[in-house]
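Structure ticket #2291
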Amino acid sequence: MEPDRTPLISVIVPVHNVENHVAACLASLRGQTFQDFEAIVVDDGSTDDSLARARAAAGDDPRFRFVLQENRGLSGARNAGLDVAQGAFVAFLDSDDRVAPEWLERMHAALEESGAPWVATALRYCFPDGGTQDHSAIHGAPDPMPGAQARLHPLSDWREVVRHFPSAWNKLYRRSLIEGLRFDEGTWFEDHAFYWQAARRAEVLLHLPEPLYLQTRGRPGQITASDSDRVFDQFAVLERLRGIMQGADKTGAAEGFSRIATRLLFERSTAALSPERRQRFAAACKDWLAEQGLSYAPDWDSGVGSGWGLVLQGRTPLSVVIPSDGNVAQLAVTLRAFAPLDLVDAELLVVVDEPAMAERVGPHLGGLPQARVLVQAGQGAGSARNAGLDAAKGEIMAFVDAGDVLLPFVLFDRVEALLRAEADFLHSAFRVGLGEGHLHSGFHDTEGISPTTRAGGIVSFSASEAPLLHGHPTGKLFRRAFLQTHGIRFGSGMLPEWQVTLRAALRAKRAVYMACPGAEQSEAAEARRLWRSPAPAGELAAALGALEASLSADEVDRLPPGWRRRLWARAVWERLNFAAWPSSAARWRFAAMAALHARRAGIAREGGATDPFIGTTVRRLVGGTGGGPGPGAVA
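Resolution: structure written out below.
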């Protein structure tokens, strides 16, 4: 840009205490392929090294100029930039974010070609661990579609206005559209009113599907993630939006306002994490909605949490049950993995066998909302899970083994998936081993699962598919009322989870299968004691007998021929290959007794397939016909 020439685009960059981010931000701006711009860097009273680092990043580039002021907040900084901006086009860039090199070039070219008054781009979330996630910046359409073209979105209806991100920073505006507009000062969530005022003036918004804006997520101090009483500012902002909508020449005002109220109250709920503040905020949301004659209505947008609606009704969305043998180290592994949003509205029930265990476990639950320790009357993981189920208040049940890990936000997201699908049971892929474990689809024989089911989503497991589901409980979800209505409970002794998974698959008219893993199953000996136990074949036979006894006559009739043989072969194979046998003689003694049980129980006379990993040795032990060993089969 020539020194005396008016720049075509003004980019306003508010800066306040972002010393670790501002240099990268300005470097991305200096690296733009579009050269004809001015950067107005407004230091809003920073108390750290932000200003010095910003000046160093700008160097001697004449396109960068600095405005210094006392702290007025983000709105005040942006307004200061608007007061001196010279360009025919205006953009905003937050100083903890970055932009792709072609950000300005693509937006300006799109406006010139289309004649639209403003343009928005998709964005890329950038997380502290280096991970990224792209988002279209349109609610209900989260993933940018490869090869998608720029599209003009009509804004003649307020319900269309609501769909787009109200952020100032992923857009380029013609000055004529925002002439005279300013950000409201003295409040948080200031982008909304500015966006809605611009939308009121505009008939269309041009959207670019490329993720050109790189937004930093998870930075300490970010306003939208701050757990403070400023979340209550949202009510005043909503009243401001109502005023903007009134008298505008757009349809759908009533429903549009209901939708934006639902979305914004939910978004603020994700920041109000302290129990006392969250309780007050929930009460305020409930009262405000009643005063406005509105209801919480998340169905229009998959990004709005249904669980928050249950909280507003005074209900508990989720109960998490963790059986513990008092091994504090294994329990700590599981508790550390939960993200704040996973448990903020959930109750956590840790179930132990003895009071002495409760004394060891209790101190490790400090700070977790609605966490308590139960001492069960019975023994073992199955009865512990049943005790948790009996004591639970949550609409949804999760059973997690101590030592296992649920990936951050998995519980939060999958509770939402189950609620939205109005399903009774959620089954999932998982990883065997923590960290770099191998992927398990959650099915013992994927060839027996329909392609539709394997693809994931809302499913209905067939009776032939039900015996193929892996029984491990971590990562599954159940509606509590569904379990209670059908009397579905965990077994006692060995294999306690098998009958719950089998019966849930048979009984759930609507289920959800998640093909992406959300849980990691620990392989530590301390976490898998029951599974690795070298128990007598008689105990294993009793466990399978209890499973069969738990089934109704209708459920038995629906199961495919040879289902008992398949399950017995699987149980024997697991015990032979993974139990910590004291000697080879003990192992083969178990094998001989397993073969004897197969003959006595009639299993050896059944046909049907076994799981593909079952080797020739086990198939001979259980007898029957069919089900040759698959690739890699052992024992």
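Closing remark: The chain has a mean pLDDT of 92.
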